[in-house]
Automatic annotation (TrEMBL):
<dbReference type="InterPro" id="IPR015424">
    <property type="entry name" value="PyrdxlP-dep_Trfase"/>
</dbReference>
<keyword id="KW-0963">Cytoplasm</keyword>
<protein>
    <recommendedName>
        <fullName>L-seryl-tRNA(Sec) selenium transferase</fullName>
        <ecNumber>2.9.1.1</ecNumber>
    </recommendedName>
</protein>
<dbReference type="InterPro" id="IPR025862">
    <property type="entry name" value="SelA_trans_N_dom"/>
</dbReference>
<comment type="pathway">
    <text>Aminoacyl-tRNA biosynthesis; selenocysteinyl-tRNA(Sec) biosynthesis; selenocysteinyl-tRNA(Sec) from L-seryl-tRNA(Sec) (bacterial route): step 1/1.</text>
</comment>
<dbReference type="InterPro" id="IPR018319">
    <property type="entry name" value="SelA-like"/>
</dbReference>
<dbReference type="GO" id="GO:0005737">
    <property type="term" value="C:cytoplasm"/>
</dbReference>
<dbReference type="Pfam" id="PF12390">
    <property type="entry name" value="Se-cys_synth_N"/>
</dbReference>
<feature type="domain" description="L-seryl-tRNA selenium transferase N-terminal">
    <location>
        <begin position="7"/>
        <end position="46"/>
    </location>
</feature>
<dbReference type="InterPro" id="IPR004534">
    <property type="entry name" value="SelA_trans"/>
</dbReference>
<comment type="similarity">
    <text>Belongs to the SelA family.</text>
</comment>
<keyword id="KW-0711">Selenium</keyword>
<dbReference type="Pfam" id="PF03841">
    <property type="entry name" value="SelA"/>
</dbReference>
<dbReference type="GO" id="GO:0001514">
    <property type="term" value="P:selenocysteine incorporation"/>
</dbReference>
<dbReference type="GO" id="GO:0004125">
    <property type="term" value="F:L-seryl-tRNA(Sec) selenium transferase activity"/>
</dbReference>
<feature type="modified residue" description="N6-(pyridoxal phosphate)lysine">
    <location>
        <position position="296"/>
    </location>
</feature>
<comment type="function">
    <text>Converts seryl-tRNA(Sec) to selenocysteinyl-tRNA(Sec) required for selenoprotein biosynthesis.</text>
</comment>
């Protein structure tokens, strides 16, 4: 057919806009968005004609064009950041937003979003006035620290801590603790950014108290410890504890700071999990400033918490960077609600999703795997062997890197043994209305069930929408 005739078979923008299929679309998305989608749909059809000298299949008649336009409007409204089922086996997955929030935090955030809140307003007129007040009071109670400060994340916490305490001076750190957290966060770079001069002491595997001692002189501003959260050195090793460092530093009138990375406000070992240093232990040992993340093991929103001596915290609160790094009302609401859960420690395993998932008994996941096997087997189809298998979950976010938690998974292997067949299944799972994120390992696709809490929603999500009713 001649090109001209093909173009002529496409309706005008106005005509397509008035298609009865699109009446509801106007109600839902407005006429401007629909007009744009109709124009783009017709443009795309014309481009197809130009390129292939044929009408695209989806533009065969006006009904189909209207449908295509309607889909285009809807997909423009589809959020790019979407909920997923995290069956990757990593509980605190940084790329998946780390800690899921407790219900109490979700409620507190939605109130803070909808209404005016007492962010920096004292109802009793006491004039405390700063936005970290509520969090600081909670952290004092939970950790025994004199005061606390909240910024956007732990990287920001380390930056403002160093800038306040030791700008223009030397900061002594063990060579074994010059951590790279990922991205551009490397301890030596952060030091430079904060205007501090890094003084490395000891060796990668062994650092002694005398190494710190020999590095102290008139220009020293701080002795610093960094928790090596994302790697582990084994063998012939020695490091100096915070308690020893505090004694040495305070003899010289110097402060000690420690970046715990994750930090855990409860004793994880009591829950059968690998032990992680606790901020309150550091405070008890006399450390002047302790920093840790809000969205790692604490199970709250992205935030960086600094606790410690009031005189230092007051200086940090007054540093110009604080204004640049301060948290908004939503973060503070989520954090306050999360920390309040810690006031009822015996309920924490139920109420805090991170802890609930980390402590799920393996038998529970094993039973769940047995329940889900048939459904997932038929979802995958005859090209795959579907099975249940024991596996090991990771905590994630650089927390406790070498420790794994016994879990249970559904596994798929491709009968044709091809990686591309397996990848296609992984893609099908990611294309579900709520994408399902698994992990390819050992020639299999693994769905680690540790983080699968809403089983009914998961099963409904596997059904194609038109078979639902
Ligand atoms: C994770 C981590 C950080 C960075 O914390 P964010 O909250 O991700 O900014 C800094 N230091 C250590 C030791 C960490 O483990």
């Amino acid at each position: 057919m001649e090109l001209k005739n093909l173009y002529a078979r496409l309706p005008s923008v106005d005509r397509l806009l008035n298609h009865r299929l699109l009446e509801k679309v106007v109600d839902r998305h407005g006429s401007a968005a629909l007009a744009e989608a109709v124009r783009q749909t017709l443009d795309e059809a014309r481009q197809h004609i130009r390129a292939t000298n044929s009408l695209p299949g989806w533009a065969a008649d006006e009904q189909q064009l209207a449908q295509a336009a309607s889909q285009r409007v809807a997909s423009r409204q589809q959020m790019q950041m979407r909920p997923v089922f995290n069956l990757s086996g990593t509980v605190l997955h940084t790329n998946l937003g780390r800690a899921p929030m407790a219900e109490a935090a979700v409620e507190a955030v939605s109130h803070a979003m909808r209404e005016s809140v007492t962010l920096e307003y004292d109802l009793d007129g006491a004039g405390r006035g700063h936005r970290d007040h509520a969090i600081s009071a909670l952290l004092q109670e939970l950790t025994g620290a004199e005061a606390a400060c909240v910024v956007n994340n732990n990287a920001a916490a380390v930056l403002i801590l160093l800038s306040t305490v030791a700008a223009g001076r030397e900061v002594v750190v063990s060579r074994g603790e010059l951590v790279e957290i990922g991205g551009a966060f490397r301890m030596p770079d952060v030091m430079r950014q904060a205007g501090c001069r890094l003084v490395e002491v000891g060796a990668t595997n062994r650092t002694h108290l005398r190494d710190y001692q020999q590095a102290i002189h008139a220009d020293t501003g701080l002795l610093m410890k960094v928790h090596t959260s994302n790697y582990h050195i084994e063998g012939f090793t020695h490091s100096v504890s915070e308690a020893e460092l505090v004694e040495l530093a305070h003899q010289h009138g110097l402060p000690v700071a420690t970046d715990l990375g994750s930090g855990a406000l409860i004793d994880l070992a009591a829950h059968g999990l690998p032990a992680e240093p606790m901020p309150q232990q550091m405070i008890a040992q006399g450390v002047d400033l302790v920093s840790f993340s809000g969205d790692k093991l604490l199970g709250g929103p992205q935030a960086g918490l600094i606790i410690g001596k009031k005189s230092w915290i007051d200086k940090i609160q007054q540093h110009p960077l604080k204004r640049a790094l301060r948290c908004d009302k939503m973060t503070l609401a989520a954090l306050e609600a999360t920390l309040r859960l810690y006031l009822q420690p015996d309920k924490l395993t139920q109420q805090l999703p991170t802890l609930r998932r980390l402590t799920r008994p393996q038998a529970e996941m094993q039973e769940q795997a047995a329940r889900l096997l048939d459904c997932l087997g038929s979802f995958a189809g005859a090209e795959f062997d579907t099975a249940t298998a024991a596996c090991l979950s990771q905590i994630g976010s650089g927390s406790l890197p070498v420790d794994r938690l016994p879990s249970w998974a559904i596994t798929f292997s491709a009968r044709d043994g091809r990686g591309s067949t397996l990848e296609a299944l992984a893609q099908r799972l990611r294309s579900l209305p709520t994408p399902v994120i698994g992990r390819l390992n050992d020639g299999k696709l693994w769905l680690d069930l540790r983080c699968l809490e809403d089983e009914a929603a998961f099963l409904a999500n596997l059904q194609p929408p038109d078979s639902a009713g």
